[in-house]
Amino acid sequence: MHLELVTLVVPEYDPAIAFFVDVLGFDLVSDEPALTDDGHPKRWVVVRPPGARTGLLLARADGADQSAAVGRQAAGRVGFFLRVDDFPAAHRRLTAAGVRFVTEPRTEPYGRVAVFLDLVGNRWDLLGPE
């Protein structure tokens, strides 16, 4: 058993794909046409870090309730954790790509960490070894 997907609600598919693939370096695993439960067109878009089993389902917000969740998936807390093998290199690369870090890198008992925002404002931990 493993956790396969976590839904991330986004305003539009293509900017989200560009952020996760072009900026963070995730793989685009799937981008297929689909239908909502009530028959409206949508896309089945899955991205995941290279070599990972767990991915993100990028789901375009449908309606006011879902739109209100965009950027607040975890109610303002860090809700996503991206572990890297080379923290300094990843931090430099993401900073150069325009990723907004809201904390400076620091050392915690679980390793190096810095909080960044995704394209819609969700908070992520960039994690790596000390």
From TrEMBL:
SUPFAM superfamilies registered for this protein in UniProt: Glyoxalase/Bleomycin resistance protein/Dihydroxybiphenyl dioxygenase
InterPro entries recorded: Glyas_Bleomycin-R_OHBP_Dase, Glyas_Fos-R_dOase_dom, VOC_core
Pfam families according to UniProt: Glyoxalase
TM stretches of this protein: none
Name of the featured protein: Glyoxalase-like domain protein
UniProt source species: Actinoalloteichus hoggarensis
